Amino acid sequence: MNRYTFLSATLVLAIAVLSLNIPLQDWLSLGLKRLSTKKLAADLIVKNAVIFTSDASLPVADSMAIQNGRILRVGNYSSLQDLVGGGTRELNIEGKVLVPGFIDSHVHLIPGGLQMGRVELRGVNQKEEFVRRVKEAAGNVKQGSWVLGGGWNNDLWGGELPMASWLDDFTADNPVWLTRMDGHMGLANSLALKLAGINNSSNDPNEPTGLLIDAAMKLVLPLIPEVSVNERREAFLRASNLALTRGVTTIVDFGRYFPGASVEHSWEDLSDVYQWADSSGKMIIRVCLFFPMETWPRLIELIKKTGRALSDWIYLGGVKAFADGSLGSSSAFFFEPYAEEPHNYGLQVTDPESLFNMTAASDKLGLQVAIHAIGDRANEMVLDTYRSVALTNGMRDRRFRIEHAQHLAPGMPARFGEQGVVASVQPDHLLDDGDSAAKKLGVDRAQQGSYLFHSLLASNARLALGSDWPVANINPVGSIKTAIKRIPHGWKHAWMSSECLSLNDALIAHTISAAYACFLDNELGSLSPGKLADFVILSTSTLDDLAEGSVTVEATYVAGAKNILIETGPGKLGHCSVASLKWDEDHGAKQNVI
Prior knowledge:
Largest sheet: 8 strands, parallel
Distance between the termini: 42 Å
Strand content: 15-25%
Number of helices: 18
Organism: Populus alba x Populus x berolinensis
GO molecular function, one term: hydrolase activity, acting on carbon-nitrogen (but not peptide) bonds
Structural class: alpha/beta
Domain Amidohydrolase: 91-560
Number of strands: 27
Shape: globular
Protein name: Protein LONG AFTER FAR-RED 3 isoform X1
InterPro entries: Amidohydro_3 (IPR013108), Metal-dep_hydrolase_composite (IPR011059), Metal_Hydrolase (IPR032466), YtcJ-like (IPR033932)
């Protein structure tokens, strides 16, 4: 009610009271009653659904009312009838399953979008196909241009590592850089090695095979031309479209920060891409951004100015550091050496003193800290660091995270629970590690301490599921199946069946627990009154089908709105269209289907 209306009503009331001699208190009672009965109407009511809410107070419902992008009420259809108004729309789901929008707890969004336009080597299981794809790409670029790509996994073709000599015959005029699937190793051809000054006398690496691991990648990465602002924006839009069609409405983004990469990339992407997209209405998924831990003072200053939420689309999450490398690159840090390399225990990427000092400084000023740790020794180092920081800075709700928590020594899952550390894990990594873990660690170590999802939950640790895209596919439906089944490629049985999750636990870990893990559980993660109306409609009428992986995403809603995708391509940055998106897993071909 505006001021003019209020004054007019007051004047009418006064005239009525004076002329009709009706007691003032009766008029006031009548007016308040009319105001109190003004109807609260929903914009949208979703009905005839099998709703998994991720809310323990009401786990299952069949209808939901939405207003202004937020949930008004969840329950049965009859309980929402008082919220129906003249402008209320109804959406009949026809018995389909509806779940909260999935939260992917670990993504590299812009690198994933960039990879969609480069040499795609994910899934290649033969040396000949690896070479063919690179040769084809090299034939399509001009002389002197870099050939970039990635996603290769040497374990798929028997374990032999690729070498520069595989590529040199057809790339004499083009430098090549191809990252392994985990981002901790890359292959350069001889021209790229020459440009980097790497030869037989170089200290790191010892032999110029073309393979560079973790920090050694700094020798080549600075030589690769920076991707332009428009290229990064296009990559972001492509990646956002893909995420949305997979049912992902929120991602925790660790950006272009990898060992050997510039710490400036995350900050450049914040201003050049994310804030650009937000200010121009091109955000279609929500992002929670983490920044290199070395830059914690800059993040503190930004949060002081803006707060943690830049908008309903962009949240400033915290800072990230690395404790070790990866299993596939034999650089994850272990107590015992690698089975085939008796002198290799992996790499300690950050020394403990530096890790403690940066973590303590960041935590003291209220930043959330996430640290990458894969090997058991790296995980213990991070847990020790977190315990020391908590004792130094005092108790508070800090929600420390360990990214990956892939291989744990006996007793470590209990420490996650005791210390309140979030285990941010990626189930689909175990699909690729099933055979390689046994080779690299030995059967006993691989079977006893790998991907201990159930043990972590049983120890009261918070589990948050993600993909690590583009290392693995961004596909929560597939990730949930993997967490439940744990059957690697080519296997007929589960890898440690005792560590399988239940369907309920897997769904919770991809929704409300994932929201908790990034301090967004008051806004997202469950279909609860007051929260943002992000949800996904699946192609099934029974939740059990999720465990079998026979389910697809039929529609994704963000703030109660359906599938608004962004067209990409030259001259189309940010043009919106209502569409669905099909993705060809084998060839990466994208089609808009209006």
